[in-house]
């Protein structure tokens, strides 16, 4: 059984899709030790309660530095014997302390076909760009914003009559399939 921690900052729909796959036995080799969040009011906390999962809330503003913030996270990760970190809508760049402790053992999913549309509101960036195709990317995490080595991508058409919300829903559906599949392949 491989122990992972999931980091999320928002609604946690990718977090929930991973947990659902674990409960269904399709990721039976994985145990999630806890949800880690940097937002005290994030909806992902409610989703974690549904799965009776521990939640670690760690706000950067409560620490003197990002290094202190990350040291606290590493304390929890070490105590829980976490082997991999899975980012699921975690909206902070991972710093050197965690990157060094989990080199090539941090995954992220991003709602674009990287290297296009990095950072926040990638779906909005794609929607406003005039492109006809976007998608989602699972990649390893490095020190840059959405710059890590790409593991797998899936595309999604942008239709002329789409709304941004319709595009977001289609991309979420793709993410909820892709991320658990990649996790199953990569994390042994």
Automatic annotation (TrEMBL):
One Pfam family matching this protein: Formyl_trans_N
Domain of life, per lineage: Bacteria
Site residues, Raises pKa of active site His: 146
Residues the entry annotates as binding N(1)-(5-phospho-beta-D-ribosyl)glycinamide: 12-14
Reaction(s) this enzyme catalyzes, per UniProt: N(1)-(5-phospho-beta-D-ribosyl)glycinamide + (6R)-10-formyltetrahydrofolate = N(2)-formyl-N(1)-(5-phospho-beta-D-ribosyl)glycinamide + (6S)-5,6,7,8-tetrahydrofolate + H(+)
EC primary class: transferase
Transferase in keyword set: yes
Residues that bind (6R)-10-formyltetrahydrofolate: 66, 91-94, 108
Record-stated family: Belongs to the GART family.
NCBIfam families per record: PurN
PANTHER family documented for this protein: PHOSPHORIBOSYLGLYCINAMIDE FORMYLTRANSFERASE
UniProt protein name: Phosphoribosylglycinamide formyltransferase
Species: Staphylococcus gallinarum
Lineage of the organism: Bacteria, Bacillati, Bacillota, Bacilli, Bacillales
